[in-house]
Automatic annotation (TrEMBL):
Source organism of this protein record: Tolypothrix tenuis PCC 7101
The protein, known as: Glyoxalase/bleomycin resistance protein/dioxygenase
Gene3D superfamilies assigned to the protein according to its UniProt record, in alphabetical order: 2,3-Dihydroxybiphenyl 1,2-Dioxygenase, domain 1 (3.10.180.10)
SUPFAM superfamilies: Glyoxalase/Bleomycin resistance protein/Dihydroxybiphenyl dioxygenase
Coiled-coil positions: none
Key word Hydrolase present: no
InterPro entries registered for this protein in UniProt: Fosfomycin_Res_Enzymes, Glyas_Bleomycin-R_OHBP_Dase, Glyas_Fos-R_dOase_dom, VOC_core, YwkD-like_dom
Amino acid sequence: MKINGIHHIAIICSDYERSKKFYVEVLGFPIIEETFRAHRNSYKLDLRVGENSQIELFSFPHPPQRPSTPEACGLRHLAFAVDDIEQTVIDLQSQGIEVENIRIDEITGKKFTFFKDPDNLPLEIYES
């Protein structure tokens, strides 16, 4: 068996329009396709992340809350690679996004930090 990479990551949001604006306008992910599924009263928004990955942003009526952050069992956070972490932090803050202080990964020596999406999903930026 050979796995070639991550195709997509699925995120369920509580407020579709707010999350769509965040991922498209703030983070700048291009829309691949947007679908409304009437039988589920749900949107599915496919977003391009880099060259080979996608985020599937779903809306569902009344989704349960995330158990805790960031140490709930299951997915801990999403990490996005960036070339210039300082500039990325400035860009996020200029959009009104709170960003933690930049830290250094004690194992790799690389810079990283965290911020949150509209549903408090922890997101990381990691300098390549």
